[in-house]
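Lab notebook page, bench 4
Experiment: in silico fold of construct C2
Operator: M.H.
Input chain length: 230 residues
Purpose: comparison with the prior construct
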Amino acid sequence: MKEDREIAVVAVSGGMDSCVTAAIASQSYRLALAHINYGQRTEARELKAFNDIADFYKAEKKLVIDFTHLAKIGGSSLTDKNIEVSQADLSNKEIPSSYVPFRNANILSACASWAEVLQAKAIFIGAVYEDSSGYPDCRPEFYQAFEKAIDEGTKPSTKIMIKTPIINLSKAEIVKKGIELGAPLHLTWSCYQNEDEACGVCDSCALRLRGFQQAGVEDPIPYKVKPEYI
């Protein structure tokens, strides 16, 4: 019975990766979905996607947290409009302008606090290793270290696992997994700069589009342009 399951906190940005992660978590856990507003360019659209996903999964609990400090700190094209969102270069191995310094640690800290209050057994986050050449906080080693930090910094009775179920999947595999699980990919939003039609040319759009193209599936969200990234 679903009521007999443990509860898990799932960090849901509103993007495809976090949606598929929520779909995976829903197979074994009751859902407490967490979303962070941090002053990103598409904050309103991401929040809508989060609420739509939470409604789709009939989440037992949901929490929206405002992290205004990340926008004040800046250093990212997602939070500082004086920094241009760079166009996609999927061969680039440097850290892109869209990297928000230590963002995932901030997200995990909030999720860990909530998980301890809820007596949750796990935190799910949709990190993808394919992104890790650009985003250092998407590496598996980071999540292993953070789980240890949670263990050291919470009550002795608190035991919380960090689960990254799609971390070793390609974007195409994530698309296929989402379809397999019936995840509402049509409700998700990944674009870094637009809230009406996805731009199709930022890093996030390019990775997403390439995933759908490699999977041989049409992406259900609207785009201004849809380049071929295969």
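Observations: The chain has one domain: 2-170. The mean pLDDT is 95.
Next step: discuss at group meeting.
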